[in-house]
Amino acid sequence: MVTVKLKPMVEILELLKPYERVFVIGCQLGSGRCKNGGLREAFKVAGYLELHGFKITGVKSPGGTCILERIDAPEKSLIKEAESSSDAILSLACGAGTQLIAENVSIPVITGVNTLFIGVERERKYFDEYCIACGDCVISETGGICPVARCPKSLINGPCGGAIAGKCEVDPSIPCIWYKIESRLKELGSLKSVEKRAPLKDYRSCVYPRRLVLEE
Amino acid sequence: MKFRETVNSGKFVITVEVAPPRGTDYREVISALEPLKGKVDAFNVTDCQRSMVRMSALSMAKLLLDSGYEPVLQMTCRDRNRIALQSELLGAWALGVENLCLMTGDFTTLGDQPDSKPVFDLDSVQLIELARTLNSGKLLNGKELNGKPSFFIGAVHNPFAGPELLQTLKLKKKIEAGARFIQTQPVYELQVAREVHELISSLGAVPLIGLLPIKSLKMANFMKKLNPTSVPSSLVEGLEKASNPALYGWEYTLDLARGVSEFGSGVHFMLVGRVKELADFIDELRNNKGEGN
Lengths: 216, 293
Ligand code: SF4
Ligand code: SF4
Hints:
heterodimer, A: alpha/beta, Rossmann fold, 2 domains, 3-stranded antiparallel beta sheet, 8 helices, 7 strands, 28% helix, B: alpha/beta, 8-stranded parallel β-barrel, 11 helices
């Protein structure tokens, strides 16, 4: 999922200063799941804004704000409703969802979150970055564990010299991912898969903006 | 004798690290090396070590050359993509820099410009491969070079880093990719030096054992933070008892160097304040080995 972090309220208030009537849109997928921009947070923020004198014209959180037909269905369009009733929209969806709203309405769209990463969730509390969408996946060779996203240097030929006692030199509070890769490969008996020198990565696979088109 | 010839000849190699200045004034850095002239085999110029901005290593290497010191140019993957790396290396050769020590490099956030964008387009193994490709007269994309280098390539290894199997595998990849000498992180025990010497030699490269004199208890604790198993408790105790810890740490290092010279291929001094003493020590070592310069 895509994880987000709610911006500080002072920053949101500052961004909304020029406007009076505000419609708050969250997202039940990423933002809601990581409890930083779902329906609950959207209501919380809306309440706060009301306390600060804003008029809240609506609070909604669709199941996928980055899907155009979910926010702009012909029979009942969430964004048209927001557009017709408000001076601005505050979006708590990720950067993608927020842009999709913005390019389909004529009023300003303000973001209330910082979009963080593609990650996994554990114990409904811990969210960890697992993939940076590099477009050229190598994890079949590395025991299903990604060194591109989970090593700060994206090293694909093995650990750096700063990997001490299982910890990463960049941030000792996170493990050096190459320890995990080594024990996993040992377990699988497939250390051979990392013996060859890894070829240089072809960064054309992640030159953005990328597009995926489905065949008819 | 040129550095590469010394390394290949089997003579005991002594290299010293030189950090370029933070600023434009390089004269003091170079004049401080005077006592070591003709004694040290090469001067290893660091590339914004610990991600702290310094004068470019290539410029410093050229300035050393101009003053009659043979440099080893360190280059990291931290700040340059493959376009910059290839172009910088071609320039280095044209300026007369023949020796390289190639590594991944410390991460950006650990230095004094933690807000900069990390590059890491290549890793150390791939950078070694890149230098060897240039040596073969080609760019990475296969295009022929108009004039090719013939770099003498080295790399680094930390005997205290893990996980063990993959560290050894990576060392092997570096040597297979073209590293002829391997400089180690600072070692403080003869037994560790012996083991890492054997490992590197068995994989086919010439080991240069890293030595960094400990000047104080504070520094010992700092080194322990970097590599917890590298500093033995006997060294810490000695520093505690010593009336002059800096001198104690210095003599400890020289003893270690003497020990390494019995079986080793060479040592790499990573920090020197005591240039004159080091010069005398090198004379002693060479005389004992019957290798007077
Ligand atoms: S290798 Fe690339 S695509 Fe595969 S998990 Fe890692 S970052 Fe994602
Ligand atoms: S310690 Fe491990 S995870 Fe951290 S930068 Fe080095 S190799 Fe990558």
